[in-house]
Design a protein that fits this description.
Elements (H helix, E strand, L loop, with lengths): L4 E2 L2 E2 L2 H7 L5 H20 L10 H13 L4 H21 L25 H8 L5 E5 L2 E5 L3 H16 L3 H5 L6 E2 L4 E5 L5 E5 L2 H11 L2 H4 L21 H11 L7 H13 L4 H8 L4 H4 L1 H17 L4
Helix pairs in contact: 1-2, 2-4, 3-4, 6-8, 6-11, 11-14
Length: 309
Amino acid sequence: MRTGTLGFVEWEIEAYRRSVAGLSPDTVRAYASDVERFAEWAERGGATGPGDVDRITLRRYLAFLATRRKAKATISRTAASLRSYFSWCARRGVITADPSVRLSAPSPDSRLPQVLGHPELERLLEPSPAELGASPTGEQHRGPTPRDVRDDAVLELLYGSGVRVAELCGLDVSDLDLDRGVVTVVGKGSKQRQVLVHDRCVAAIRAWLAGPRTTMVRPSSETGALFYNGRGNRLGTRDVRRILDRRSPVPTHPHALRHTFATHLLDGGADLRVVQELLGHASLQTTQVYTHVSKERLRSVYSGTHPRA
């Protein structure tokens, strides 16, 4: 976008982007893009920098997004992006007053997280079958391909530990302590935490490390990465989505395995604060949504099985 100026004051979006670099890459990208789109819109209205923006301008922009039929979640996130940006401007002294204080936006539609049922989960996590291969002496069985072994390990780790997809993609082999069943991940805000993995997950990761991982390494590969894609690059979030597309019996997003992990823990009687710690949530309020999911599941089971329901 074109960067306007008001005296010596600029939008300084790249500097703002660097200031929030500690957030997740997706959040940084979304916040910076939201601010860029607002700045472009504001410049069309005559603003040349953040000093030209007042509260009315911000409210008009959110209303403009509503007229463009943007989703409530998008408008809510944009409001959060603008509050973050103008707060940063105020702290740096770029503006004398923060126009985004108490800037409100429509609350996103309340949706309970998607949780996989046990039949879908069992089919998804079922180990890759051996392939049939022809030989001069007749039909024979071949083992799973390296990609299949990798996919088994990825899916077991997503469900077995509840890690975010970006956290899984960022894992290095050195982050594993398989003897103790512990994996160290770096979450949002560059916060490090340890998650637990069960024996089946450990076995799947060991199978991947035992040989298949080496076959996918290329000269240009990051030598320490835990998972690689077919080009030898570190596995990315889109690669994980394609794994789900291949393996899931129903349309499923990778994050659904994290939701399922948390809900199954609560169904089994786990303490909410333990689940919060395992998920890496900064606030207990974020984790509490899974209590609602658990209650909905109980209600569904009751309605479908009790003869008087």
